[in-house]
């Protein structure tokens, strides 16, 4: 179909209606969901989620790597603090029952289910310089986009600037610390792994699906990431997660105090 004229371009665009690619959002989301999307390797997505929303990320091929940033909606100065997430909970390894904390000592999200166990809080995402040196290109439109560059695009669509973007954490490609302090890349748990996060505040979510910085493969390998979200209820007093540790109890109490004052 010719696109050299305005009419031709219009007809070509309209002819795409109803067609689907393997990786794209479902709009509107199917019944019972508020977000349904497949994110291709080397791509990104973003969404604002209500408090209590359950966000499920799945790795159908065993090759996805979901790099995540979280922000308190409308307050970008309160954002995921990976260092505090590790330090406050005395643990660098994510899994069910762990909390994702802000730099205000409050819970942004809780990790309520995990069938992978292969995640990373230590390395952050890839940079343009790293990907250019390793793959020959790190630009967001190139063949091997860097996670940091994709976060800049996702953030811009939510009113965030590059200076707003802190270090990220990632799911589905594991890293462990050896006894000598070096980092060991342990890769994926295999196809079909999933994690579920519960939003404990209204959140802005940024996701970049790119290879882990320590992935030893020479090629840029990153498979699709499935994203599904549904309404739910936030963690409340009496939930085992609230009182799992003294640290989690304090973080949830800080969160409740803040939200109550805001009428939430």
Automatic annotation (TrEMBL):
It comes from the Bacteria. It comes from Actinacidiphila paucisporea. This is DUF1989 domain-containing protein. It holds the Pfam family DUF1989. Residues 1-20 are annotated as: Disordered. Residues 37-203 form the DUF1989 domain.
